Amino acid sequence: MSSINEKYAELVEFLRQNSAENAKRVVTENSSLMRHRDDSGRLPIHWASAGGCVPFVEFSVADNPESLNSTDDSGWTPLMIAASAGRFDVCRFLLGSALCEVNHKNNNGQTALHYAASKNHLSILKLLVEADGDVNAQDKYGASPLHRASSQGHLDIVRFLLSCKRIRIDLSNREGDTPLHLACEDENDSVAILLAQNGADLKRQNKNEKTPIDLVRQAELKRKLLAFIED
C-alpha cells in the first residue's frame, strides 16, 4: 500500500502538470490528502496555484474556504505563489473572493505585489492593485514593489506603478536607497529616466551619503539626469 507521502507526491505532479481531473481522482481516493502538508508546509492548493490548475484551486476552496489564505512554512499564500508564477487565472479567481488577503506578507515581509513586480507580471500586478493591493508595502529590507521593479529594469511595471495615485516614488529601503538609486546602480537607464521624469529626487542621499547620480557609471545617463536638476 502506498504511503500518504507517495500519494501526495503523485498529486503534486498532476497539479504541476495542470491535470485537474487526475488530481481530483487522487484526492477522491484519499480525501485526507486535501489537508496534507509536505515538508515545506504546502497544501495541494499551493501546488495547484503554482501549476495554474484553476479547477483544482476552485475545488480546494469549495472543500475548505480557509485554504484560500493558507500559508506554507515560509508564509506564502496561494495568491503569492500564483502571482510569482504568473498564473493570471488563478489570481483572478482568488481575488474574486472578499476573503482573499491581498496584502498578506510572508516571512520576508513581501506581498504578492512584490513578486508580480519583480517577475514582470504586469497583468497580475494590475489585478492586485485593483483589489486594493498596497503599492507602497515594504518588506523586511524596506523594499517596495517599485524598488523591485526598478532594480530589475521592468519599465512597464515601473510606468504602471507611477500611475498609481498613492505611489511613494522616493520611499527608502533599509540602506536608504530609493527606487532611483537602484535603477542608477543597476544601469537600468530607461527606468532611471522615467523615474526622474516623474519627479524622483535626484539629490536624495542614501545611508552611504550617495545620491542616485553618484551611482551612475555611464556618462550619457549622468548627463541626462543632471539636465533634470538644471531644469
Automatic annotation (TrEMBL):
Q: Where is the signal peptide?
A: none
Q: Which domain of life is it from?
A: Eukaryota
Asked whether the UniProt record includes Repeat among its keywords, one would answer yes
Q: Which UniProt keywords apply?
A: ANK repeat, Repeat
Pfam families recorded for this chain?
Ank_2, Ank_4
ANK repeat segments run 74-95, 108-140, 141-163, 175-207
Q: Does the keyword Repeat apply?
A: yes
Q: Which PANTHER family match?
A: 26S PROTEASOME NON-ATPASE REGULATORY SUBUNIT 10 (PTHR24171:SF11), ANKYRIN REPEAT DOMAIN-CONTAINING PROTEIN 39-RELATED (PTHR24171)
Please give the name of this protein: 26S proteasome non-ATPase regulatory subunit 10
Q: Which organism is it from?
A: Acrobeloides nanus
